[in-house]
From TrEMBL:
EC number(s) recorded for this UniProt protein: 2.7.4.6
This protein's name: Nucleoside diphosphate kinase
One GO CC term, this protein: cytoplasm
UniProt function note: Major role in the synthesis of nucleoside triphosphates other than ATP. The ATP gamma phosphate is transferred to the NDP beta phosphate via a ping-pong mechanism, using a phosphorylated active-site intermediate.
Domain Nucleoside diphosphate kinase-like, chain residue ranges per copy: 1-134
Classification via CDD domains: NDPk_I (cd04413)
Gene this chain is encoded by: ndk
Family as reported in the entry's similarity comment: Belongs to the NDK family.
Lineage: Bacteria, Bacillati, Bacillota, Clostridia, Eubacteriales
UniProt cross-references to Pfam families, sorted A to Z: NDK (PF00334)
Organism: Clostridium celatum DSM 1785
Reaction catalysed by this enzyme: a 2'-deoxyribonucleoside 5'-diphosphate + ATP = a 2'-deoxyribonucleoside 5'-triphosphate + ADP; a ribonucleoside 5'-diphosphate + ATP = a ribonucleoside 5'-triphosphate + ADP
Subunit structure, interactors included: Homotetramer.
UniProt KW keywords: ATP-binding, Cytoplasm, Kinase, Magnesium, Metal-binding, Nucleotide metabolism, Nucleotide-binding, Phosphoprotein, Transferase
Domain of life: Bacteria
């Protein structure tokens, strides 16, 4: 079964909406199969966001994701990579549809509440970063 990695980011944890966000995934028939909270180290943040290194927003992104605890989860379900990205909403604020998590709760392009893997390849890479002991491809 397809899996994806989700991060509920510091701004969402600070807003007390972890439960609201997870409910939206569960209502879409996706199953939480792993979950943890942690304050992210710069090393883990840099590994996770390595494809963005050198971009103008990189430093702001690393500072933000490391500022206070996040909640990391693995979700499982049919077509879950695409489903979760639909539920989360677009990265660009002007493209976010009503009802998506980002449209409802995000403060901007950096403080955007959630991250989710964008492909099968990135879900495998990201699950290894956040849940190195997770077994079950
Ligand atoms: P996320 O889904 O976690 O993946 C990469 C993050 O980079 C993205 O959410 C945004 O928070 C951030 N990001 C992407 N594009 C921009 C941009 N143009 N300006 C600032 N931040 C960006």
């Amino acid at each position: 079964m397809e899996k994806t990695l989700v991060l509920i980011k510091p701004d969402a944890v600070e807003q007390n909406i972890i439960g609201n966000i997870i409910s939206l995934y569960e209502e879409a028939n996706l199953k939480v199969i792993a979950l943890k909270m942690e304050k992210v180290s710069r090393e883990t943040a840099e590994t996770h966001y390595k494809e963005h290194k050198g971009k103008v927003f990189y430093q702001e992104l690393i500072d933000f994701i490391t500022r206070s605890p996040i909640c990391a989860l693995i979700l499982e379900g049919e077509n879950c990579i695409a489903k979760v990205r639909e539920i989360n909403g677009a990265t660009k604020p002007e493209e976010q549809k009503p009802g998506t998590i980002r449209k409802k709760y995000a403060k901007g392009i950096t403080e955007n509440c959630v991250h989710a893997s964008d492909s099968l390849e990135s879900s495998k890479r990201e699950i290894k970063i956040w849940f190195p002991n997770f077994k079950g491809e």
